Every structure is written in C-alpha cells, then in structure tokens.
Amino acid sequence: MKSLNEIIKTFDFEEANRLLGQLSFEGFLNELLQLAYDDESILHYTFVNGWLVQKETYGLHLLAINLLFNPLCHIEGAYHSSLYHVKRCLVLSNNKDLISLENLLFLNEVPDKVVSDEEALEVAKLILEIKPEHEIAQNVIKKCRK
C-alpha cells in the first residue's frame, strides 16, 4: 500500500478512498495535516480539491477547511478560500452543522475578518437555537450588542 504522501503526489484518489476506509477520519486528517505542516506545500489542498471534484462530501470539505485554517493559513486568501468550504458543509448538512456554524464565527475573528459582525450575529443566533448554552455564541451576541 502506498503512503499518504505517495497518494497525494500521484493524485491517486482511489487509493485515498481505500486508506480513508482503513483509518478513522481523525487519523487521516491528522496524517494529512502533519504532511502539510512538514512540506509547507499547497499540494495537499490541491489534492483534496481534486478529490472533491471526484466525490463531494462533507468530510472532504472538512479536510480542506482544516488545511486552510492550520498549516496553510499563512497563504494569502486561505481564510477567504475556506469560507467556500464552510458554506458547502452547511449546504450538505442542511444548515444544521454546529461545526460549520462555529467555523463561521471563527472567520469573523481572523485578521482578514472574512465574516462580518452582522453575519456573525445571525450565525450566533442559529447556534443558540441548536445549543442554547453555547458560550462562544453567547459572547458574540454580547459583543455585537455593545
């Protein structure tokens, strides 16, 4: 079996699917992130996007988001690009995905301020409908009311 690094460099999506079937999603994500941190290359993000063209899934969008939020965040436009993936996760989850809603709040706090305060306020309200005790959403609402 090929290593994840070989799979990425050869854009072997079939082998990637097999590997993902053998590892937990979290294990696959951690290995992918480690490779991206080690290589400091956009190749890993390109690989995930190619995989998304083959088969769009919530999980693949999460992989892209994690790459853009973490090892690739220093690349110009990374946070703006991640917004696309967050919004696709929301579509694929019928706008009920707490992780994606939290990611929108995160994008309100990044230096690029990809999500406006107005949108963050609306997102915080949606989060509180799902999880009324959500502290971050409560804090966003308090901050926006000041």
Q: Provide the residue-averaged pLDDT.
A: 93
- Multimeric state: single chain
Please mark out the parts with pLDDT under 50 across 5 or more consecutive residues, or reply none. Answer: none
The end-to-end span amounts to 57 Å
C-alpha-based Rg, rounded: 16 Å
- Structural class, from helix and strand content? mainly alpha
How many E strands? Answer: 0
The helix content is over 70%
Strand content: under 5%
Listing every helix as H and every strand as E from the N terminus to the C terminus, the arrangement reads HHHHHHHHH
Task: Work out the helix count.
Answer: 9
Q: What can be said about the biggest beta sheet?
A: none
Q: What global shape is seen?
A: elongated
Highlighted features:
146 residues, elongated
Structural features, described:
There is one protein chain. With 146 residues, the chain is an all-alpha fold. Helix content is 74%, strand content 0%. It contains 9 helices and no strands. The longest helix has 15 residues, at 25-39.
Condensed summary:
About 75% of the residues lie in helices and about 0% in strands. With about 150 residues, it is mainly alpha-helical. It is elongated.
Please render the helix and strand layout as text.
Elements: H1 4-10, H2 13-22, H3 25-39, H4 43-54, H5 58-69, H6 78-92, H7 98-109, H8 117-130, H9 135-145
Helix pairs in contact: 3-5, 4-5, 5-6, 6-7, 7-8, 8-9
